[in-house]
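User: quick one, sequence for these tokens?
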């Protein structure tokens, strides 16, 4: 008997997306098992969505996009900056507030001010940047959905692998039970002298092969469980008790397939996050072109500043002046000597108080400025041409995404139709194999055939069972992939 030990999915990303939806529905059914409560697909996805680092990183991308939008909004507002300084000048220097030379070993100075500026016009850069930030938010959201879908696909593939491997273990155990019955029967016949001992060796060899198959399939099941446990970031020690919910046969049935893939294609092209993300890429490229085109427009800015300061060299009069008389000389008039008396005022200077200087030195200014790009080494021209190329690239990517998605939907529809036909054929093959085996078993028990004939019939039955199981799951999942493309109510969480 051939026993696959891994599941290889050939469906595309979009096919597997819908597989997840099907598994979620199947996972809602619960069974009672020993050990911990079995995991439904819903529970697996909830756990993964909470702990997966890729999803957390995508969430940070959304937060970053939100911050970018706040920054783009702030570009419309004026800025406001404060400044303050404190320093010392030594030796001969110019007083910054009197503009006079001062001889001093050390002069303390302070300055304080506020300044604000506002962009009045910059070629619509702020407006277009804000629009691009909104697109970036939407693109980050679409990217998160894509990442979530990829995580779901990984979890669903591991979940599906466990279901397959569990079915193979069950088939192997059924075969072992049937062979044990033949060993017991043949032992009794050999003991009674009614059968050759070689016939007993043949069925014992078959039983050993069945035991080996059980070990092989059990190991494959254990590895499948370990894979899902690791994807869920659970301790590996939980693998031994980890169980998933087994869907019932009715959950796997599906017969009403659409006659064409048109409805599914239409829904997928209008709703899938990959399409939305590619469309946003085109819009962003167009805004980028406008930004590059308007880079040659003038920029107009306004600024306003006010401030004050203090200088240790600033002096002011302290108190009333001191008047002193002194003789400049003598005047002789008619042989009479008259002294010439003059008065001199002297002042006592002190450093002007800090508060007085701050009030006295207050100043403010308002400026308007404009810059016009005339020649900048072809940067504006090159930027415009690069932006034009980016538009074509984004449009091609969008068209490629549409074509890929359309092809995937059409393939999903064809796969579902083929799976339906294959399921019917495998069911018929299984019925025929069961009849053939029943007949071979009776003939073998009656001594009318050899152990080799019996083993051949058993091998055909084993293959028919495996193929039927594979076809049953294949139809269930591929048909539900098509359901997903058609927009039927499905949730991943």
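Assistant:
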């Amino acid at each position: 008997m051939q026993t696959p030990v891994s599941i290889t999915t050939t469906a595309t990303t979009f096919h597997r997306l819908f597989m997840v939806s099907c598994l979620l529905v199947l996972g809602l059914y619960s069974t009672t098992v020993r050990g911990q409560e079995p995991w439904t697909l819903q529970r697996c996805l909830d756990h993964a969505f909470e702990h997966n680092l890729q999803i957390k990183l995508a969430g940070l991308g959304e937060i970053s996009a939100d911050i970018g939008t706040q920054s783009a909004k702030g570009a419309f507002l004026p800025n406001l900056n404060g400044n303050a300084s404190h320093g010392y000048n030594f030796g001969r220097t110019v007083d910054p507030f009197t503009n006079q030379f001062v001889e001093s070993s050390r002069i303390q100075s302070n300055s304080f001010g506020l300044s604000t500026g506002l962009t009045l016009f910059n070629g619509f850069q702020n407006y277009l940047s804000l629009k691009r930030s909104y697109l970036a938010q939407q693109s980050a959201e679409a990217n998160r959905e894509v990442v979530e879908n990829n995580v779901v696909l990984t979890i669903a593939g591991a979940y599906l692998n466990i279901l397959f491997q569990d079915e193979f273990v069950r088939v192997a155990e059924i075969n072992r039970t049937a062979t044990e019955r033949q060993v017991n029967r043949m032992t009794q016949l050999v003991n009674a002298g009614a059968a050759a001992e070689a016939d007993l060796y043949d069925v014992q060899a078959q039983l050993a092969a069945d035991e080996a198959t059980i070990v092989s399939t059990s190991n494959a099941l254990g590895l499948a469980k370990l894979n899902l446990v690791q994807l869920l970031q659970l301790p590996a020690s939980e693998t031994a008790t980890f169980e998933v919910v087994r869907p019932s046969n009715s959950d796997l049935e599906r017969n009403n397939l659409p006659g064409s893939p048109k409805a599914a294609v239409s829904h997928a092209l209008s709703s899938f996050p990959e399409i939305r993300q590619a469309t946003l890429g085109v819009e962003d490229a167009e805004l980028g072109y406008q930004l590059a085109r308007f880079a040659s427009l003038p920029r107009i800015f306004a600024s306003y500043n006010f401030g004050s300061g203090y200088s240790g060299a600033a002096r002011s009069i302290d108190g009333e002046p001191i008047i002193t008389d002194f003789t400049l000389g003598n005047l002789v008039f008619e042989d009479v000597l008259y002294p010439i008396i003059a008065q001199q005022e002297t002042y006592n200077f002190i450093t002007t108080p800090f508060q007085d200087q701050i009030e006295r030195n207050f100043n403010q200014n308002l400026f308007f400025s404009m810059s016009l790009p005339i020649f900048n080494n072809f940067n504006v021209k090159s930027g415009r041409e690069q932006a034009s190329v980016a538009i074509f690239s984004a449009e091609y990517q969008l068209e490629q995404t549409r074509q890929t998605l359309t092809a995937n939907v059409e393939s999903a529809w064809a796969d579902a139709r083929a799976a339906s036909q294959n399921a019917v054929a495998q069911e018929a093959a299984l019925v025929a194999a069961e009849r053939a085996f029943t007949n071979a078993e009776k003939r073998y028990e009656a001594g009318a055939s050899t152990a080799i004939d019996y083993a051949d019939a058993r091998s055909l039955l084993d293959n028919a069972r495996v193929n039927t199981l594979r076809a049953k799951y294949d139809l269930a999942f591929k048909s539900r992939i098509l359901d997903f493309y058609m927009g039927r109510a499905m949730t991943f969480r």
